[in-house]
Specification:
5-stranded mixed sheet; 3% helix
Length: 376
Amino acid sequence: MEDDAPVIYGLEFQARALTPQTAETDAIRFLVGTQSLRYDNQIHIIDFDDENNIINKNVLLHQVGEIWHISTSPADKGVLATCYNKTSDSKVMTCAAVWRMPKELESGSHESPDDSSSNTQTLELLCHLDNTAHGNMACIMWEPMGDGKKIISLADNNILLWDLQESSAKAVLSSSTALEGKGQLKFTSGRWSPHHNCTQIATANDTTVRGWDTRSMRQIYCIENAHGQLVRDLDFNPNKQYYLASCGDDCKVKFWDTRNVTEPVKTLEEHSHWVWNVRYNHSHDQLILTGSSDSRVILSNMVSISSEPFGHMVDDDELSDQEDQHQEEKKKFKVLNSPPCSKTCQRSADYPSIQSTLNAFLFCVLCYASNVRRQD
């Protein structure tokens, strides 16, 4: 695009949780969850109007606590799940619940950017994921290609597989397993693979990445010391079934073939601080987004390990000749600097760099200093 300047939207509170609405196929939509200790937290429904280059929003109250993680159903665009802090008996627990947004907001009923939030509505609680016996929730993963009835939660050192029943109003724990051994055994992140009939997940704890079979709940591979410091995030290549990306506090992004995890297939060292997030482009898997505490988001062109080794990202008739295409593929990195939101933004991370499910060349970045920005 000729103009790749971001569109910025400010939030009332600080925020770390961001997700695309995966079941939405008619609009470009993201959800953002806020973190406030003093006031009711919110979920902002962010719709991007790409024709007019503006952001529209609606706000839902999330009255149970600070939101640390948010994810949406792949089948029902009105259903979402959150991990949030809850104080009980002077102890802070991270819990999880499944919610439904008001019906009129499911299909993108918009306010203008200048409208107030005087008509803020509240989420409908569908069910809690009872983690009383399992510890603090780290994240929730929906079965990628499913009907929205299966979710996995990571709680401390436990992997919990839930069946949602009665229109998601009831969550039944169908199976579980626990991580055992020495060292830091709390899960930090996880990703459900869209391959292998959705029977595999990957998890991160401390510096280790592990693969699991959801049918047996057994470990199928283990990458010890995958990173020199804490592993922050994981993502599966959408087109190559054995390829997995990881990132961490050692400032590196690594790519793995899970059939042979002795060494990474490739390593990127473009960031100068912790790398919090890594995301594959769901249409063109040579494009990788990474967000870091160095206040940069980097778009990398990893043609050599993609499913399109010649980098075909546009129709042949849109290029004058093959040489033009070759030159375009040589643009390996694009650095997208964070906007000057505040000093807080500059010394904290961008969370996360998330791609639109409708537009393969549009993504959203959340800055902890309460700004959302869209970029092409």
